[in-house]
Amino acid sequence: MGISVLLLSSFFTKENYKISSLFIGFITASFPIIIKEENKVLSGNYKNIVHLFLGAAAVVFLSSLKLSSAVASNSTVLGFLICVIAGSVAITAMVLPGISGSTMLMCFGIYLPLINAVKDLITFNFSGLKIIIGVGLGIIIGVLLFIRLIQKLLDKYRGACVYSIIGMMLGSYYAIVIGPTQLKVPQHAMALPDFSIVFFLIGVVIMVAFTIIKTKKAKG
């Protein structure tokens, strides 16, 4: 586990555009999956399309805040609160179709800082401990409070929720593209020459394989 975290941290730092391409593959493959699974909810329920735009706008706005700078200075209360909120949102996203917790952490600019904090902890460097504690506390809060709330909202307002999720998925493209600008050592936003078709396809294959396994488990 420790070795995998160290490798992931190193690879993400050096090859962040490939990782970004991987995430784009995840999201792109999720669209036909969620549309197929939620076809009955989406068809003819176009009054909820406004929620699609709201979901996309929320993710774009969140990504534009560049919260990673506040997290990087983890001595601040604001940075800790951002970690708590990000942890809550990330774990809540796990119950939503098409949205991953890691994608939401990227939107908050916390994905790489969290990996680096875990890497530092493994090497007995406790400088990022506040990030780990904040995200961990957020996960606990999310499990105890928000997951049940999201499930109730899905049951009662599934159409609006699904359109919001699709909007968030669309907004995630923006979050991924500008992700490199929020690194500790900022890099340029992802451009077409930076895009890796290989890692994109790997992301698509992983998502499709995961869906097939999930479907087989549900049937059997």
Output the radius of gyration. 18 Å
The structure class reads mainly alpha
- Helix content bin: over 70%
Spatial shape: globular
Question: How many β-strand stretches?
Answer: 0
The largest pleated sheet is described as: none
Distance between the termini: 31 Å
- Count of helical segments? 11
Query: How do the SSEs run, as a string of H and E?
Result: HHHHHHHHHHH
Supply the number of structural domains: 1
> What would the average pLDDT be, to the nearest integer?
82
Residues in β-strands, percent: under 5%
Query: Low-confidence runs (pLDDT<50, min 5 residues)?
Result: 1-5
Q: How do the strands and helices of this protein lay out in sequence?
A:
Layout: H1 2-14, H2 16-37, H3 39-42, H4 49-64, H5 68-72, H6 77-93, H7 101-107, H8 111-122, H9 129-156, H10 158-178, H11 197-219
Helix pairs in contact: 1-2, 1-8, 2-10, 2-11, 4-10, 6-7, 6-9, 8-9, 9-10
Overview of the molecule:
By secondary structure, the protein is an all-alpha fold. It has one domain. The protein contains 11 helices and no strands.
Jot down its keywords.
single chain, 220 residues, mainly alpha, 11 helices, disordered N terminus
Q: Short description, anyone?
A:
With 220 residues, this protein is mainly alpha-helical. The chain has helices spanning 2-14, 16-37, 39-42, 49-64, 68-72, 77-93, 101-107, 111-122, 129-156, 158-178, 197-219. 76% of the residues lie in helices and 0% in strands.
